[in-house]
Amino acid sequence: MQDALPEEPRKEVQRRLDEIERIEGVRILLAVESGSRAWGFHSPDSDFDARFLYVREEDAYLSLFTPRDVIETPLVDLMDVNGWDLSKAIRLMIKGNSVIHEWLASPLVYRADSAFIAALTPIARAWRSTYADAHHYYGLLATQRGRHIAGRAIVNLKKYFYAVRPAIALQWLRERGDAPPMDLPGLLAGVSLPPDAAEALEQLRRAKMASSEVGEGARIAALDAYIEEQAAWGMQAKGPVPSPDPVLVERSNALFRAAVRGQLG
């Protein structure tokens, strides 16, 4: 999938990450692609959706007025580069948010502190739950289906990808239980779609890879039926995250402190 990140755009993202570190006074510990290029169904003019985790100097967290826990930069020349403070990421992970699991699974990595990844990965796995993952992917599916497909006779065909990916992730959870891959090829390698849905999806994928716009068209019955089936399971499977484990909370606190103090590894 590295062809999804041509050399010049990759260098430009790296330049912007360096600039963010310099201007914001942060250390970026992980930066990945987290959009259609990482999902495996980008088009020639898709954005580069770089997402990163960072920490500030320790004094920033001990200040009366702490900085925002997100860094957002303008979308310029297809470059969408935004990040979360590690404190925000861990708090969301404790609440069952699956975004960090997806970032850790991204097949397209701009930079990664090896000691940080080695420390974060087992903690992220320990926080993960099938209930939370089902909630996350059902929410993505429901949002995309409601926004772009439901109630319409003619749809923007490329929007099917944004509902199908979480639908396949739900099938993965349903059949396998472990954390699903982020990318569409990885998902399809682990589960089998109904033949008519698989054929329709492959036709759409080839069209999107070849052109910036797939265009509008009539609803695709095979994909509608597949999405509906997985949504029905996701609705039943999603649920509240169990109460936080105090021991795991303290492990997470220790990871955060070590990352801020540069004491990982």
Entry summary:
The protein has 2 domains: 2-128 and 244-261, 2-Layer Sandwich (Beta Polymerase, domain 2), CATH 3.30.460; 130-237.
Account of the 3D structure:
This protein has two domains: about 1-130 and about 245-260, Beta Polymerase, domain 2, CATH 3.30.460; about 130-235. The chain is about 55% helix and about 15% strand. It has helices spanning about 5-25, 35-40, 60, 85-95, 100-105, 115-125, 130-150, 160-175, 185-190, 195-210, 220-235, 245-260; strands at about 25-35, 50-55, 70, 80-85, 110, 155, 215-220. Helix 7 (about 130-150) packs antiparallel against helix 8 (about 160-175) and helix 10 (about 195-210) packs across helix 11.
List the helices and strands and how they pair.
Layout: H1 7-24, E1 26-33, H2 36-39, E2 48-56, H3 58-61, E3 70-72, E4 79-85, H4 86-94, H5 99-105, E5 109-112, H6 114-127, H7 130-148, E6 154-156, H8 160-175, H9 184-190, H10 195-210, E7 216-218, H11 221-237, H12 246-261
Parallel strand pairs: 2-4
Antiparallel strand pairs: 1-2, 1-5, 3-4, 6-7
Helix pairs in contact: 6-12, 7-8, 7-11, 8-9, 8-11, 10-11
- What's the gyration radius in Å? 19 Å
**Looking at CATH, which topology of the largest domain would you report?**
Beta Polymerase, domain 2
Sheet with the most strands: spatial strand order: 3-4-2-1-5
Number of distinct helices: 12
| Strand runs, count | 7
User: What sort of overall outline do the alpha carbons produce when their principal axes are compared?
Assistant: globular
- Architecture of the largest domain, according to CATH? 2-Layer Sandwich
Tally of separate domains: 2
CATH class descriptor of the largest domain: Alpha Beta
String of helices and strands: HEHEHEEHHEHHEHHHEHH
Distance between the termini: 30 Å
Structural class: alpha+beta
Percent in helix: 55-70%
| Strand portion | 5-15%
Quote the average pLDDT. Answer: 92
Major sheet details: 5 strands, mixed
